[in-house]
Amino acid sequence: MLPTIGSENQIPAILILQDWRLNVLGKQNTPECDFMNLIEKNLLEGRVKVEGIWRPHDSTVTAALIEPSVVKSSVSHPVWMELHGQHTKGQLVIDYNSKEESHIRIITGMDGPLFQKMLIWTLNSNKFYTD
Q1: Which of 47, 61, 97, 129 has a beta carbon 3.0–4.6 Å from 42's, enabling a disulfide?
Q2: How far is CA 101 from each of CA 22, 74, 87, 89, rounded to the nearest angstrom?
Q3: Which structural domains are found in the chain, ordered by start?
Q4: All residues at 6 or more sequence positions from 125 whose CB lies less than 8 Å from its CB, including other chains
Q5: Would you write out the chain's pLDDT as a tens digit for each of its 131 residues?
């Protein structure tokens, strides 16, 4: 079963403050951090409304695949891709009411300190995140 996370409008898997993203993670003195900051330049310069929360969805799923113990809670539901415009168009729909077999595990909570440690590790790969 593949892990995913709820959208910011549904289930906050983990809330990482924008301040931590900017002033801790974003201040790592490495080429990897410089690259990440360049990718998120619009976010860093305030061109994207973030409401004080940084939502690294891809990193959340990646962390769960690398270190399953980072996931503290999850739920399983069947899902389907809406292609015909009945409910949405081109979006993954989580079916909360179906009795069918679940296809995905939705991460609803994570070990915040471990996740943050893993994020810092990715930008300073000279030291493993469990050290």
Answers
A1: 47
A2: 41, 16, 21, 23
A3: 2-123 (3.90.245.10)
A4: 32
A5: 444 444 444 445 567 888 899 899 999 999 999 999 999 888 777 776 667 788 888 888 999 999 999 999 888 888 888 787 776 677 878 888 888 888 788 888 889 899 999 999 888 876 655 55
